[in-house]
């Protein structure tokens, strides 16, 4: 597996837009600060990783396993669909979006990007959402 953490840092934009949920073996799992959608971000703690291909094969397999773990955690919200994407057009640091989608969500059926202004979590709802996700990850 690629050497995680050595020289790694979280991109400032990701730090500003997300909240920590869990430390997985490879990734930092974070919640996007947008209450419009249950939305997780996985950021591999690998220095200078920009593309999937920047990870060695073992890290790619681990990232895939952690994406599956994030998908299972989001099942607590009973989504209609899960969207998984690694775009990196605005933030080049490798990160993967896992978004729970619903037929009645604000952006359905379009992508969530650019559809509506992000709705930040209230402090209370943020704590509740993170606790619910952490319980789903543990169970």
TrEMBL record:
Pfam families (alphabetical): HIT (PF01230)
Annotated InterPro entries: HIT-like, HIT-like_sf, HIT_Hint
UniProt domain HIT: residue ranges: 40-108
Name of the featured protein: HIT domain-containing protein
Organism: Novilysobacter erysipheiresistens
